[in-house]
Specification:
Distance between the termini: 31 Å
CATH class of the largest domain: Mainly Beta
Strand order of the largest sheet: 1-2-5-4-3-6
Shape: elongated
Strand content: over 45%
Mean pLDDT: 92
Number of domains: 2
Order of helices and strands: EEEEEHEHEEEEEE
Amino acid sequence: MSADPAALVRLGEVCGVHGIKGWVKVRSFTEPRSNLIAYRDWLLETGGQRRSVHVEDAALAGRNVIAKLEGVDAPELARELVGSIVLVRRAEMPRCAPGEFYWADLEGLEVRSLAGIVLGKVARLIATGANDVIVLAGREGRMIPFIADRIVRQVDLEAGVIVVDWDASFWE
């Protein structure tokens, strides 16, 4: 499960080059986006290969984060990193307050109704603006609003289960 401190968590993706000094532009998956700036040691994954990098400097730039990586001093070197996934070790992330969860910790959990019916597994979560939404794996269009206490009644990371007040007939 992703709550394993040795696990790696995807926090962004290198999506471009910024300037002439080798800075990279990163699409942050954190909320807020600026949280990515707090991490100074990243693993970049490209084509199944991982590379450790140290972030010398970083800042918000529009809808993205820009970062100066140690040893990347030219736009040509930065361009080679475009498409890389930014990973950090789960152990480096702050503990959540009670009732809060990292999305990465919820992915893969089994979703059950109050009646105990298995509805599926969490493939991913998405932010819609109104509320977050659980997307079930292998179930095209099967989504459940992540509204704590009203729809999401319990999240048990140890048991790997999310209990929801939801009926499968809602999708029919």
